[in-house]
Amino acid sequence: MKRTLLLIFAFIALMLGSFIWFVATWDSKQRAPLSMLPMTTEQPA
After folding, report:
1. What is the dihedral of CA 25, 27, 31, 35, to 10 degrees?
2. Dist. CA 45–CA 7, nearest whole Å
3. What distance in Å separates the CA atoms of residue 37 and residue 34, rounded to the nearest whole number?
4. Nearest-angstrom CA–CA distance, 40 and 2
5. CA atoms within 13 A on the CB side of 27
6. How confident is the model at residue 27, as a pLDDT?
7. Where are the alpha helices (DSSP H) in 1-45?
8. CA–CA gap between residue 1 and residue 3 (Å, rounded)
9. What is d(CA 11, CA 14) in angstroms, rounded to the nearest whole number?
10. pLDDT for position 39
11. Which terminal residue of the chain, N or C, has fewer Cβ atoms less than 10 Å from its own Cβ?
12. How far is CA 36 from CA 8, 31, 32, 39, in A?
């Protein structure tokens, strides 16, 4: 039981650490936004 909880906490710590690293090293000028789609100016036929 104790070993399982330690593995769960280690996994959560790894997930949080990687997310914090991702946010801290994000360069918005180098990468395009992930949530926006390019606008199309064409009208459907």
Report:
1. 80
2. 57
3. 8
4. 55
5. 3
6. 81
7. 2-24
8. 5
9. 5
10. 66
11. C
12. 34, 12, 9, 9
All residue ranges of the chain with pLDDT < 70 are 32-40, 42-45
Quote the pLDDT of residue 28.
72
Query: Residue 13 corresponds to which tokens in the numbers above?
Result: 């710590």
pLDDT value for 26: 83
- What does the pLDDT read at residue 43? 66
Please state, in angstroms and rounded to a whole number, the distance separating the CA atoms of residues 45 and 2. Answer: 64
pLDDT, position 24: 92
> Which pLDDT score, from 0 to 100, does residue 34 have?
67
Q: What angle do CA 17, 23, 27 make, to 5 degrees?
A: 140
Alpha-carbon span 36 to 45, nearest angstrom: 24
